[in-house]
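We store chain and fold; example below:
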Amino acid sequence: MFEFLKHKPKTAQPIFEVLGNDMHCHLLPRVDDGSKSEEETATCMRVMRAAGFEKIFCTPHYQYPRFPNIEEDILERFDNLKLDLAANGVKGNDVPQLAGIAGEYRIDSGFQQRLDANKFLLIGGKYLLVELSLHQQVMGVDQVLFDLQMKGYDIILAHPERYPYYSSSSHVLEHFKDMGVFFQVNILSLGGFYGEGPRRKAFEMLDNGWIEFMGTDMHNTLYAQALIDCTHDKKIEKVLTSHTFLNKSLTDPTVTNKKL
């Protein structure tokens, strides 16, 4: 299934060691559209370690009704994943540390119920990762973000470059920045994985000074191959040396998240 790694024309370069932590990936198996097995997770993790990542925070989708995940179940699955990988010898310097479990929460028709319950898994015990529809603009997002802030959450908006209804200089995105919302760009967007539009917008948002975090948004081995390609991209390497990101500030959130 993963023969591509044995015959790949390139090997990953550790250019992302300057970030240290990947704070957005879908490597908890069988809970969303990400990894389908522990084997696939281990394969992707090996590529991520070779690319320079020391720790990763898994962020499965919470999206109604497609991925109606429950936080307590996700926490248990995460613990089981760590045990399974260790039992199969997947540990040490070959893979990044599984530093924490959080979520990528879609602001959709089911989000208000989560907001009312005030029940989220946070990245590093601090940041709430949210995403919007990849197809159509949802009204009232600024009010939802404000309500979250009033509850004390520090918000990261996932991959703003991928929302086709926002330009790289969108007044809506600028308003979010004025509100104090953090932005996370997908590394694979910079490499053109999602097409030229998101790639161009990603670089323009970096030029705007709007991006505080970078993430792989790793789902599967196809993404892993794309990450290998990104480690040889000179424009991405320049971004890493010319911008400051907050990835390394993230710490283990286990205690905070297990208060659910």
Remarks:
- The CA atoms of residues 28 and 202 lie 26 Å apart.
- The mean pLDDT is 94.
